[in-house]
Amino acid sequence: MLGNAEAGATVGAAAVHEPLSGALVNEPHRKLRVCVLQPSLEGSCSVFKDVDAFVKPEVHDPHGRYEWSEAFLRKATSVAQLLELLVPGVAGQQGGGGGAKAAPDVFLNLCDGAWDEDRAGKEVIEALERLNMPYTGANAAFYEPSKIEMKMAAHYYGVKVPAWVHIQPGVGRRGVEAGLESVLAPPSHGGLRFPLIVKHPSGYGSVGMSKDSKVHNAEQLRVQVAHCVNSFGGALVEEFIGGREFTVLVVEEPGPAAGDCGDTDPDLTSFHPVAYTPVECAFGPGEDFKHFDIKWTDYGSMSWRPCTDPELSERLKAAARDTFLATRGISYGRCDFRVDAAGDIYLLEINPNCGVLDPPEALLTGCASSADYILSLDPEHNHAHFLATIFATAISRHRLRQPKVAVQFFRSPPRITAQPQHQAQERQSNALEEEEAPRTPTCEAAAASAAAAAAATAAAAALALEDQLDNGVANATASSGSDSSGSNSSTASGASSPSRHSTGSGASEAITAANGEPVTGGKHPQAAAAAAGPAGHAAPEGGGAGGWGLVALVPIRAGEVVQRNEQRPAVLASSGFVKRSWPAGSRQREWFDAYAYPIGDEVFVTWSDDPTSWAPLNHSCDPNCWLRGLDLLARRDIAPDEQITADYATFCAGPNVAAFDCDCGAGCCRRRVTGADYLQPWVGERFGQHVSPFVAAARKRAGLA
Does residue 174 sit in helix, strand or coil? Predict the structure, then answer.
């Protein structure tokens, strides 16, 4: 037997070689700090107050892999309580002595109050998002989908649902009566078949349901509908699916799914849903569905058993994965299904943040949640694996969503004259030597094609893009959007602030100073042309000569996505709508004239009216970014504090694009940016296929592809 000293030395040696759970946050020398969040029941009137017990997740960590703490949040004070956990004393509640405790690395969020409850729920998630903290469980979008939203999503994913009618009060009682008429219509006219079941249209945990919720005639139906409408503001009436009931736990795990299509969006490919062993609900005598009492108090009337039919098990898992994806599942959720006599599977609902992590003894007394029973069946997918998985995905998702770029205001430096051509060429040559982008032609190559460019300009005037817009509409500069969740999930161009700047972008400099004087001679004197000095000269946000731009927060490697626009929302306007709705001189028309760019002959991405989504993308004749489809990629390595730029010729096109003077300072600066630039030969030489789909198609029509 080893002595204490020897044992300690052995443990210490093992610790050196085996990283601790803090490795998830790049600190392998310590344990991961986990804070468990649960809703406080102090002063609560919730129906769950006396039946939904607090849990102690640390009992499922017998080897002490994590450092645990807990907090019980009240709905009204949850934000202040979270602030206190992160920065003790910030909420004015700091106790005396003892020193500040280290902030949690991840929050195990078990707050599950509904929107109409007095227990903490969705507001906790919103606070965690705003505080930029990793957390487990549903995000705001997945937290509490209505059963109507579940049914629509499942329908388009090919998951069957029972026939249903949503009854909502209208003017007087007509809304309810109209709903009842729909339910009671002959089945050939869309009516439902008895027996029916009447439910809360959005709630979870079988709230509001009793044995009487299953109805067999119109009189019973009216009573139950009236109960739900009066209690919850509406009622969901479904055909009752006779047969067996199953539950499947779905857990999101890191890594792409097998056979993934290779989409580069990390939100779509960094995680995949795994369906655990399906279990069947075995009802006692006189019971055939889960109502509130059987779920929360009368445990003897219901038990669980594993699904023993391999083929049915696989079909249930597939339906659960599809439901999870359809409803934008995050972290984990539990799907409830009915299987009829023909073997058809029907989704009843998905439960985000489902009950889980009950103490082990709950399994012995029959009061454990179905999720805990599922986790007890498979040693490969047990409670320890579940905890490790949801912590890993929470931290990984948080890391992916950290922004790469940020909006910044630049105070204009003194006007800088253009460099002599030999200096510009030498600077460009040095910069190109540092790049690892052999496909990018030099500025000298662009200068060599000047004669051909003049001819292309004449061709541009002839092309005219088939009645694209009337002569009164011009689009001068770029708008690009920024996803609040971070640059790996950046949203589409089109939700953007004004940005009509030309900025230098030499590869060896953070930002090259450019002309800070207002544009003159155009319709947009308010749009400043370039306001970017070296990164250290950026001014605090505020007024004065200057402008806004995007700046790199972290090193960005060549080829890396800087702003993701594929599969992201954009603000669109057609030329017809602009002509009809935004008269010349109106603010919307001025925004459109200055900042819209085409994605079709008659459709434009334009400025959002939401300032929080603005992300001004400035022009450079030698930019550090270019396009792949709709996504903005780094054209070369980008250093922190370097301004993000693109050449407007790669996506701003057409005879009505407002021209502006450029003083970006690049060796190949063309000094004047116009809507005809996209047809210049150097666009193909310098950018190849890294232009917008619209510009690529227009160049092809002009014989330049």
Answer: helix
Q: Higher-confidence residue: 130 or 655?
A: 130
* All residues at 6 or more sequence positions from 630 whose CB lies less than 8 Å from its CB, including other chains: 492, 493, 565, 566, 692, 693
Same domain, 320 and 346: yes
Pair (633, 601) in one structural domain? yes
**Is residue 507, in this structure, part of any structural domain at all?**
no
Residues 637 and 594 in one domain: yes
Pairwise CA distance, residues 206 & 297, whole Å: 12
Give the tokens for residue 333: 């959720």
Q: Are 106 and 34 in contact (CB under 8 A)?
A: yes
Concatenating the DSSP letter of every residue in 648-682 gives GGGT--STTSPPEE-----TT--SEE-TTGGGSHH
Mean pLDDT on 531-550 = 50
| Per-residue confidence (pLDDT) for residue 520, from 0 to 100 | 26
Residue type, 155: H
Distance CA 177, CA 340 (A): 30
How far apart, in whole angstroms, are the C-alpha atoms of residue 473 and residue 242? 63
- Is residue 469 over pLDDT 60? no
Contacts within 8 Å (CB) and 24+ apart, 51-54: 51/296, 51/297, 52/205, 52/296, 52/355, 53/358
Residue 392 covered by a domain: yes
In this predicted structure, the answer to whether residue 657 has a pLDDT above a threshold of 70 is: yes
* pLDDT for 641: 95
**Which tokens sit at 446?**
């662009």
Mapping DSSP onto H, E and C, the string for 414-455 reads: CCCCCCCHHHHHHHHHHHHHHCCCCCCCCHHHHHHCHHHHHH
Residues 143 and 280 grouped into a single domain: yes
* Lowest-confidence segment of 256-265, 331-340, 415-424, 597-606 by average pLDDT: 415-424
- The torsion angle over the Cα atoms of residues 552, 554, 558 and 563, rounded to 10 degrees, is -50
Which residues, in sequence order, are bridge partners of residue 667?
Answer: none
- If asked whether residues 168 and 265 sit together in one domain, one would say no
What sections of 67-165 are H helices per DSSP?
Answer: 78-86, 122-130, 140-143, 147-156
The one-letter amino acid code at 523 reads: K
Contacts of residue 15, Cβ cutoff 8 Å, sequence gap at least 6: none
Residue 500 is encoded by which pair of tokens? Answer: 């009509």
> How far apart, in whole angstroms, are the C-alpha atoms of residue 105 and residue 101?
12
Q: Are residues 179 and 153 in the same domain?
A: no
Same domain for 315 and 208: no
pLDDT of residue 51: 65
Q: Residues 96-107: pLDDT tens digits?
A: 344 567 899 999
Please identify, among 193, 210, 240, the residue that sits at the C-terminal boundary of a domain.
Answer: 240
* Residue ending a domain, choose from 366, 401, 436: 401
Most confident residue range from 321-325, 546-550, 587-591 = 321-325
Q: What is the mean pLDDT of residues 165-169?
A: 91
Determine the Cα angle at 641 with ends 498 and 514, to 5°. Answer: 55
pLDDT given for residue 424 in this prediction: 37
Question: Does residue 688 share a domain with residue 588?
Answer: yes
For residue 381, the domain's CATH number is 3.30.470.20
With helix as H, strand as E and coil as C, how does 532-543 read? CCCHHHCCCCCC
Number of structural domains found in the chain? 4
Evaluate whether residue 687 is within a structural domain.
Answer: yes
| In a domain? residue 73 | yes
User: Which range marks the domain in which residue 228 is found?
Assistant: 163-240
Query: Which residue bears the tokens 């971070």?
Result: 486
E strand residue ranges, 51-95 = 66-73
| Identity of the residue numbered 481 | G
Within a 10 A sphere around the Cβ of 133, how many other Cβ atoms? 20
Average pLDDT of every residue of the chain? 79
Find residue 672's DSSP bridge partners: 661
